[in-house]
Amino acid sequence: MIKRLVHFALHQPMFVGLMAVLFIAGGIVAFKTLPIEAFPDVSDIQVNVIALYPGRAPEEVEKQVTIPLEIALSGIPHQVRLFSHTQFG
Question: Using one digit for the tens of pLDDT, what is the confidence trace for 4-15?
């Protein structure tokens, strides 16, 4: 198979040259039509919510603040991940 391909390429140099030129021209056209942004936004969208409930135990903060917030925030469209951390104070 490779032997026939090499044989064809050696005996048809005009065809191989024409295909190379067409391939290069197609690459140039594709490169010129690429949309380019001056400053593309490559950062992930991240939102931090900090809720304070001073003087309460972590279990109480979790029941009264964290869980209701998680339920409310779980309805956000296109959300990938939700993480919560509850601590004293």
Answer: 989 999 999 999
